[in-house]
Amino acid sequence: MELSLSSREFAGYTVVEARGEVDVYTASVLRQRLIEVIEGGSHRVVVDLRRVDFLDSTGLGVLVGALKRLRMAGGELGLVCDNEKLLKVFRITALDRVFALHETVEAATAPPAQPNG
User: Fold this and answer.
1) Residues 16-28: pLDDT tens digits?
2) If you average pLDDT over residues 29-36, what whole number do you get?
3) Of 49, 60, 63, 62, which Cα lies nearest the Cα of 20?
4) Which residue segments constitute the domains of the chain, with CATH numbers given?
5) Most buried among 1, 6, 62, 88, using CB within 10 Å?
6) Cβ neighbours, 10 Å, residue 57
């Protein structure tokens, strides 16, 4: 299967929507798009993985690289994922502690909750 990407602006974030498989063969396409988005001035990025069927270690590496690049620029990266198979990969690799994982784009772009008091 191939990987197709689209981008849109939503609530002050650039949302990169991925569809297909992110693996050793297609990860470079995602890497290039994320670099373009970041170098284009977007520092608040969300990658929507809800239509991704498969994600391997190469794809995880691309996401980690984008997170590092954004953090160095004072930005942030959120991931949208509701696929239990993919979520398991994030848990096994402990990357669920590194990435902000959300079920929807709206949740990923919502302002942080303010503590009461």
Assistant:
1) 999 999 999 999 9
2) 97
3) 49
4) 3-109 (3.30.750.24)
5) 62
6) 12
